[in-house]
Amino acid sequence: MESRPVSNIIGRRTLGLAAWPTRLITTHIKIDVSDYFVIVTITIYEAGWCLEEGFVMASMLVTRKAAEPVQKQHEIGLRQRKKARLRQQIIDTSISLFRKNGYEETRIDDIVQALDVSQPTFFRYFPSKDAVLRTVGERGYACVCERLRSELSSKAETAERLTRLYVTMAREVETDRKLWQAVVLSGAMDPVRSAELRGHEEAAASLLREILTQGQKRGEVTRAFPVVHLAEFMEGLYNTVVRQWAVDLTGPHKLTERVRSAVDFFLRGIRP
Fold first, then answer.
1. What whole-number distance in Å separates Cα of residue 129 and Cα of residue 94?
2. If both were cysteines, with which of 61, 62, 114, 201 could 191 make a disulfide (CB 3.0 to 4.6 Å apart)?
3. Cα distance between residue 79 and residue 73, in whole Å
4. 68-126: CATH number
5. Could you tell me which CATH class the domain 130-269 is placed in?
6. In the predicted model, what is the mean pLDDT of residues 53-76?
């Protein structure tokens, strides 16, 4: 609360003071004025029962009103929504340019010009264009985890689960090759290059291990190798196929066909 005295004494009247006051009477008057409170304090000192033997002192204090908590919360919430909206606009614009021009040909200058914001504004939200794509990587892992949980809830055999899982993911990637080229080149889903993604990657790996563990219990998957190794083999195989398709291969190569072949290869190797 901000306070500032306007006048210590705005009125004083001495009325035949004969002795030190033996009695004190104080009254406060609070006046509400716009954004301020005006507090007037009137103090009466008296030496006896007769007020004519005392004196009167008055003072005034101007105090700024404290902001209403609800209003503050509203203002903070509005600022947060504006920041979140601009952050999402940066992500959406960047992805659009990556799809149109390619990852390597898209500069931060292109992104800020399209948004009509400054580079410092961009860097307040993301340290680089790679960082923008990490949000795509996080969403990618979230989708993978969702599909893995869906497969875990099904009654299908391990071979059907894995084939459906990876072919479905490949089909989605295939429809957005430019974006996934950007994801691969930036390492946006690489937990080695992006440490903050390690938790997301581990969540997905844990679900895949659970599918393979269930397969072992059913007698559908070999017990000759630890489940953790089998999961690493499958993930490494899938990631390699996607990377080569997205970046290295030219021509009308079908990612779904290549992924289906990779899954078939893996399934043959894990038969009991």
1. 8
2. 201
3. 10
4. 1.10.10.60
5. mainly alpha
6. 55
